[in-house]
Structure prediction request, 108 residues.
Amino acid sequence: MSTTLIVAAPREIRLRKAQKRLEILWQDGRRSFLDCLVLRKSCACSNCQKAQQTGLLSLIDAEVGIERMEFSGVSGLQFHFSDGHFRGLYPWGYLRELADCYSLDEIA
Prediction:
């Protein structure tokens, strides 16, 4: 992901723990579904960026889930993953970019 877009907060966000995915209803009516593994591998914190550069980030358990999520101010989310990681912040624009690349979407 090269640049972060400025995107309005979604209308609705649901954590589907059993399916290990995040459901987002955007302001334009698009509904995105992002797998927890995609979100974990896409963490942009400095530790994860270093791990990506050295090839260690591929060692994430495929069954990783999100235990809980919190709003990061008004601009995005912070996830607490089942592997103990919680440092990355996911702005709305970054989540939309991930959805553009990795999501199975619906138009509401």
Notes: Strands lie at 12-16, 21-25, 30-35, 66-72, 76-81, 89-91, 106-107.
